[in-house]
Amino acid sequence: xxxxxxxxxxxxxxxxxxxxxxxxxxxxxxxxxxxxxxxxxxxxxxxxxxxxxxxxxxxxxxxxxxxxxxxxxxxxxxxxxxxxxxxxxxxxxxxxxxxxxxxxxxxxxxxxxxxxxxxxxxxxxxxxxxxxxxxxxxxxxxxxxxxxxxxxxxxxxxxxxxxxxxxxxxxxxxxxxxxxxxxxxxxxxxxxxxxxxxxxxxxxxxxxxxxxxxxxxxxxxxxxxxxxxxxxxxxxxxxxxxxxxxx
Length: 247
Description:
Blueprint: H1 2-36, H2 41-47, H3 49-78, H4 81-107, H5 114-124, H6 133-144, H7 190-194, H8 206-245
Helix pairs in contact: 1-3, 1-8, 2-3, 2-6, 3-4, 4-8
């Protein structure tokens, strides 16, 4: 009976580690996509040191979970006490690091408010200056998501250092409607847009558009994170039980 219980524990341990292996592969793939993505998200990450660091942390965590799941599977199948102990200590450190990161993300969530982005836009935005990373990033975001500013075109009215002629309003070219939402897309009517005719402008703010676009994925990522933490916890329990059961 004890042997059957140990065998069951071994295969459950293998199953949990297989899920950790898959979770690590997903995080690794997501981290690589964020860093090399050519659609403009890469510039957003590069412009924000916090996001830039987070992307590489995600990449490192994915690689560690990928390797850890593989080692856990090997330790369970071969009933190797050394591998199981190493697995337990390593996954405990990862579990505590992920828990700490989640707590810090919750504490500093106010840095991602509408007011924060509005303040940063008015302070650093330089219109069509593509040599400036911040401005180029915002232009890419506004073109990709067919939006304008954080709250709307009115955000640019208070930016006094924006150069524009007397025939143009403060709205930048990136806020003008295009036939295709990319930098190569043709303007519907650029002159009318810059002259202030609203029907040729993207009037909706980027904060609302992006929030609506990623709302589903945020909940999915949160559910995935909770699932990964639960799997890691059960894997540690099974690893210790299997460790104590091996003669």
